[in-house]
């Protein structure tokens, strides 16, 4: 099987919707989560193998600045970009899941929300999974006498899993796991510029999936969970490509 | 504090609705759960101190026979009554709870019923407690992959307890426990005929309460549960009065 880096990039891109602004956020989240400024030329260089044109980059950077995702500054004749406070905050929360090598801690409890107010509260809770109108799975619940909590028996039945992970996310994990495993050797041998682009694409596709469902423990979904398999493949690949900022 | 047996009977009677037919079922359930026949004179003798007149007894026995709770036969000039097959079956199920010296086993699970069919099934399940439209507590659930089960954290919050035990049942246990404790010494010193009547009255009042809620473990309700206190008082008293049939 011959696989070169260009083909790897094409395959990863074909896995799903690539938005330029989202790629930029991935780059900054990967290299500048501490809020440091990155020259626009560096961002352009990473995204160029993925086919992002300078015009598209400029438009997206403008949009991100307008929406307060990034901030910019001029240094001599170059522009530099950094995540805004809001951008850092959102990216940090996402990073927690994107770079996790281990599955989520199994401190989830099932909670029965009796009143409309409670149901609204738990619906709004970041990371909670709603299984039925009044039954939620939540991580790390602080003890509270008014709540009816229970330790659910893992794995969850199929209908409950279906409330947590949509079918296209499930399939997305299956496909991404296969692709990431297939390109592993190619990546190890690719030149640094291509490695950087592949790293960003893998992070991007992985992030698109993990942020679409709450981070329930692997045991809750059960044996055939492609999310767990995909996590292992992605972390394995990321370990092969040093983060550009840290090089 | 002077308490005689007559006063004890009056106090127990005042605790709540006394139906003659229900007293008869209590007598037969206590003395003839195996389906043996009891002369009507014996039933009359037990209920006489409670103030049940022969006419009222006759009418109630007739009604119980018509509704297939009891069967009768003539032996010489006396009538004898026994529980019917239906009467035995219902009384056996109740006896399980009425004479239990120990709290219910803690093998209860919480179950989330996802579909209307499942909800109907668990609503119809004897002994199940419905906490919300789709959340049930059930004892002894056979394992089944389609069910979302969980081990609830005891004690349940107040709102869930309120779905299981109605306020007047809660108060009923409190009152019965006090009365049964108060009459303990009187009962030990009473003559056998009065002891028999008191035994039947205590069983009757106790049964009225226990059959009004599912038999959840004491730990589910929590520390202040008067049902557990009342159970201990009732069993203590019953142990003082030998069952007439076994004497």
Please describe what this structure looks like.
The structure is a homodimer of 247-residue chains. With 247 residues, chain A is α+β, with helices and mostly antiparallel strands. The first copy, chain A, folds into 2 domains: 178 residues, Arc Repressor Mutant, subunit A; 46 residues. Chain A is 54% helix and 13% strand. The first copy, chain A, contains 12 helices and 7 strands. In chain A, the strands form 2 sheets. Chain A has a 4-stranded antiparallel sheet. In chain A, a hairpin with a 2-residue loop joins β5 and β6. In chain A, α1 runs parallel beside α10 and α10 runs antiparallel to α12. The longest helix of chain A has 19 residues. Chain A is globular and about 60 Å long. The first copy, chain A, starts with a helix and ends in a 7-residue tail after the last helix. The interface between A and B is medium-sized, with 23 and 23 residues. Chains A, B: This is Phenylacetic acid degradation operon negative regulatory protein. Chains A, B: InterPro entries: PaaX-like_N, PaaX_C, PaaX_trns_reg, WH-like_DNA-bd_sf, WH_DNA-bd_sf.
